[in-house]
Amino acid sequence: METLGLEVPAPVRAAYLPDFLTPHESADGLEPGLTAIRNTPPARVTHEMDLLARISGAPSWAPRLAERDSLDELVQVLRAYYHAVIAPHDDRMCESIAGERGLLARATLDSGIGGLLAGLCPSMRWRPPVLHVDYVEDRDLHLEGRGLRLVPSHFCWQLPMSLADNTMRPVLVYPVHGARLPEPARPDVALGALLGRTRATALRTLALGSTTSELARTLGVSPATATHHTTVLRDAGLITSRRVQNTVLHILTPLGATMLRGPASAPCAARSGRR
Q: Residue 84 has what DSSP assignment?
């Protein structure tokens, strides 16, 4: 991807989000992200608050965020907001993003990086070597061998977003599109009768790929119980499992896909609908 570039057309709406509020460390979870925000150098906070004031306007208290006490208070508010508003929906969002990852992984295996980039979402178009993005402003981002982190998000509406500072690690956040796991609450009656309700739900969940911990969250069981179910499904030839670093990814075999017998259960059909 060293030759990849990003090109964005004319403005659609004005927007600016201070980069320090979306730190790279947040990829490791909520607390690492909050710690990175808390440790942002005061000079950087001041600079980005000045940008916010010039571009979009900022409240009168914004400059005080450069003070340690104010930044600590902001982190406490962000943590409280997460637990009150986001955490109750976290499992379903994780399932949806796992489905997105499964589809894109399959697109990459089938068609390489070009297939991955060509199927992201309608607001992005892959014309080698440039990824054209509908964005809020005219802007070119040259990767220069740094790679590009793609982040599907439930909180990025309409248009993709990137970091304002081109010198930081390139990130492209885009709306989750066309990748939803099958609804686990209504497993097929015949499949449930054959495998049992829980195991049938597990098979449907694995239609788009899932790790053991993701499957456990979906089923509402312990990781050990989820492992038991995947072992039975694997021994029956319905799924295959591959270790990726410290996780195990489970995907359907052709036999497992055939057993589901529905459009939501056919990964190839779901993937082709994204192109």
A: I
| Gap between the Cα atoms of 170 and 150, Å rounded | 9
One-letter amino acid for residue 102 of the chain = G
**DSSP state letter for 1:** -
Cα gap 230→151, rounded to integer Å: 28
Condensed to tens digits (0 to 9), the pLDDT of residues 31-67 reads 999 999 999 999 999 999 999 998 888 888 899 999 9
Tokens of 8: 């964005």
- The pTM of the full predicted model, rounded to 2 decimals, is 0.60
Largest CA distance in the chain: 64
CA 41-42-48 angle, to 5 degrees, is 95
One-letter identity of residue 155:
F
Long-range contacts of 182-188 (CB under 8 A, 24+ apart): 182/207, 182/262, 182/264, 182/265, 184/218, 184/219, 188/260, 188/261, 188/262
